[in-house]
Amino acid sequence: MAETVLRAAIIQQKAWPDKSASLAESERLLDGVCQEHAPSLVLLQELHGTHYFCQTEDPSLFDLAEPLDGPTARRLSAMAKKHAVVLVGGIFEKRAPGVFHNTALVFEKDGSLAGYYRKMHIPDDPAFYEKFYFTPGDAVRNDGSSGFTPIRTSVGKLGVLVCWDQWYPEGARLMAMAGADLLLYPTAIGWDPQDAEEEKQKQKQAWTLIQRSHAVANHLPVLVANRTGHEENPEGQGSGITFWGGSFIAGQQGNFLAEADTESSCTLVADIDLSETERLRRIWPYFRDRRIDAYGGLTSRFLES
Prior knowledge:
single chain, Nitrilase/N-carbamoyl-D-aminoacid amidohydrolase, six-stranded mixed beta sheet, 17 strands, about 25% strand, globular
């Protein structure tokens, strides 16, 4: 079996309300990693072009939204073309008046838009008030495809999911069943600084573990890009969020190939052997042994005893 190795990179960064400053930081880190390591695929974090504005519900913040072909998308396109890299970035998308999405964009090496993914699972937790801003992605898109459809690129089929999606094995499984070669999770997650240290570590370990488990259960590499740095609540409510970084690249058995610390703006690079998926699925045939005749209950909200 021929070996197919993909060099992939992740950018972990701070971000600010000023889009120009945030995108300049994305570009600075992208320039550096491409010049030094020449990756073929680069993943940016969720909403990297702005601060994490969902800490509060403020109608004026809808002004941050852009269409799929807006200025942030054009800048990302230029970055991808400049470095001849498949680039996964993200925007706060304005689809129509009153319809907004948290959207990942995938650009080909020539700068063309390979596809997009609209976040499917939308949280509404203290300091993560995303349901105020984001409409969930369509379960069935206009072209008839599932919302969980990998994006075809020159480096493979990318199963792009976003942040809160990472807690759901169903999304990862559906992407894998549709032929994804990798799972990618741009993310924005952190701690309340007032939480006890033990609780912080439990949260971060759970977050890392669930995504490594998607690699194991589907025999797919997993790339996770989180933001870092402390961001104040713009209304002064609470103590803000300290984003915990911890971005990583895992192989098909959940093994770490690269891992970031909690505080640095940095890049990660790993060479991923994509042929491992075929090898592992031959000796650990999870897909063969799935009892699809017995899983009907998964489409219910809850099973009453």
